[in-house]
Design brief:
Length: 221
């Protein structure tokens, strides 16, 4: 079972998400929070697999809550899925930088939400496809001058570097395998090594690092 905590300051929204996710055979909702501070408390108390987190909430917003939750060694395996009503929002980017595994627009379909929870629960990243390019590329462009590429990039092999670039392009493991004409298992091995060498949690952080470091440039195919 995927254990989920929902954090949103709107009671009706929380109830709707809880009913939708709780109706799935493989998902159980173990808590609901009305603000960021409560979300942090529930994350530490219940140790869920996934936290569905709104960005704008009272007392503590979703960004700070995400940062505090993922900084806690006791919640190192927890994944945060950010929900937002805005398709371009620097606050969402900040949440991803804080360690969130992805984000989804609140106008996404019910099926999209359920799928998103399952995706981040298994350790993959979820970035809303209709806004990923604009969000990541725009803010990466703005911040790149302030980012020093990690020295660990130099430790990647040529193939690992290629895999990182393809991940930044939004390709799944299966798509990367097809592109490189290798097995999906081989790709998973390369991805795992990239994460380890660069100290990354998931693909969301890999995408941001690739753009911020200049490995991939805005507009590059």
């Amino acid at each position: 079972m995927i254990r989920v905590v929902i954090a949103d300051d709107q009671t009706i929204v929380r109830a709707g998400f809880a009913a939708l996710l709780g109706a799935q055979e493989d998902i159980t909702v173990v808590g609901e929070a009305g603000d960021g501070a409560e979300a942090v408390d529930l994350a530490r108390r219940h140790r869920p697999d996934v936290m569905v987190m709104d960005v704008r909430m009272p007392r503590m917003d979703g960004i700070e809550a995400t940062r505090r939750i993922l900084a806690d060694p006791g919640t190192e395996n927890l994944r945060v899925l950010i929900l937002t009503t805005f398709d371009i929002d620097e606050h969402v980017y900040d949440a991803l930088a804080a360690g969130a595994s992805g984000f989804l627009l609140k106008d996404a379909t019910a099926a999209d939400l359920v799928s998103a929870v399952r995706i981040v629960a298994r350790g993959d990243a979820l970035l809303a496809p209709q806004v990923t390019a604009r969000l990541v590329r725009e803010f990466a462009r703005q911040r790149r001058s302030r980012i020093t590429p990690p020295a660990a990039l130099a430790t990647l092999t040529a193939r690992e570097n290629e895999v990182l670039i393809l991940m930044a392009g939004g390709l799944s493991n299966a798509e990367i395998a097809t592109h490189l004409v290798v097995s999906e298992h081989t790709v998973k091995t390369h991805v795992a090594r990239v994460f380890t060498k660069l100290t990354l949690r998931d693909r969301a952080q890999a995408v941001m690092l690739a753009y911020e470091s200049g490995l991939v440039t805005p507009g590059q195919p």
